[in-house]
Write a structure and sequence with these properties.
CATH class: Alpha Beta
CATH topology: Rossmann fold
Helix content: 40-55%
Number of domains: 1
Number of strands: 7
Strand content: 5-15%
CATH superfamily: NAD(P)-binding Rossmann-like Domain
Structural class: alpha/beta
Distance between the termini: 56 Å
CATH architecture: 3-Layer(aba) Sandwich
Shape: globular
Order of helices and strands: HHEHEHEHEHEHHEHHE
Length: about 260
């Protein structure tokens, strides 16, 4: 190979030097659990990069706060928010009916809605069922609806937000761990099921993230973030942006994010 050809071969493709904004511009995205924590932060970041976002959550005040954040950022035209519970099959159907009205297609589903819970010795059957319906069955139901829309155009991306709890399987968190281990297995199998349809499936498993799911006070969470013993929601949002910004030929299969230091 000549020196000239070697130099040409090793030059970066300049089309991708600033591809983040170009890649997401006009993308139509649904985020479950999009009114707090990781979901809200991700929605704002993706909208800033040109995406159109539908998000939902369970509580009106959190939804209003999120929509206010979009308005302050001048992004109100990039978001549609609604109240819905991912544990309710009728709510999920209602969300996707709205998707069909305001989007001409669905490019990305980010399954993020989730609840913290302890071990099996806490609560009873109805409590466990609600956690399972929210943390696992809701992911499955939303994925099913999303795939129906994505397969028509032979393209799409599903990102499931899991947890490193699926790996660490800590004491006194057996119910929560069961749901996160379930997400891990579901994602791995789903990828094999839908890749031939042109649909990508990615799993993100964060460690401890400073959100309202944590038992620590907001002040303590900020201290832990400064000490690098807790991740920020922004860390997960940036990871999602990175995954969605990859060329079509690239699949980011699994990302695990761990806080840099362990709490003493």
């Amino acid at each position: 190979m000549s020196k000239k050809n070697i130099m040409n071969h090793t030059q970066p493709d300049r089309r991708h030097l600033n591809y983040l904004q170009e890649k997401l511009d006009g993308k139509q995205i649904l985020i479950t659990g999009g009114t707090t924590g990781i979901g809200r932060t991700t929605a704002l970041l993706l909208a800033t990069n040109g995406a159109r976002v539908v998000l939902f959550g369970r509580h009106e005040q959190e939804l209003n706060d999120t929509l206010d954040d979009f308005k302050k950022a001048g992004l109100e035209d990039h978001v549609y928010g609604m109240l819905a519970d991912s544990a309710d099959k009728n709510d999920i159907k209602r969300v996707f009916k709205k998707i069909d009205k305001i989007f001409d297609t669905l490019d990305v589903l980010i399954n993020n809605a989730g609840l913290a819970y302890d071990g099996i010795m806490k609560g009873g059957y109805d409590d466990w069922q609600y956690i399972l319906d929210t943390n696992l069955l809701g992911y499955m139901a939303c994925a099913h609806e999303a795939i129906q829309r994505m397969k028509e155009k032979g393209k799409g991306h599903i990102i499931n937000i899991g947890s490193l709890s699926a790996e660490s399987r800590g004491k006194d968190s057996s119910v929560y761990v069961a749901t996160k281990a379930g997400i891990q297995g579901f994602t791995d199998s789903l990828r094999k099921e839908v890749n031939a349809m042109g649909i990508k499936v990615s799993l993100i498993e964060p460690g401890t993230v400073g959100t309202d799911m944590q038992p620590e006070s907001p002040a303590k969470q900020r201290r832990m973030e400064r000490k690098m013993t807790m991740l920020k929601a922004e860390d997960i949002a940036n990871c999602i942006l990175y995954i969605l910004s990859q060329p079509e030929r690239c699949d980011i299969v699994t990302v695990q994010l761990q806080q840099h230091l362990k709490e003493d």
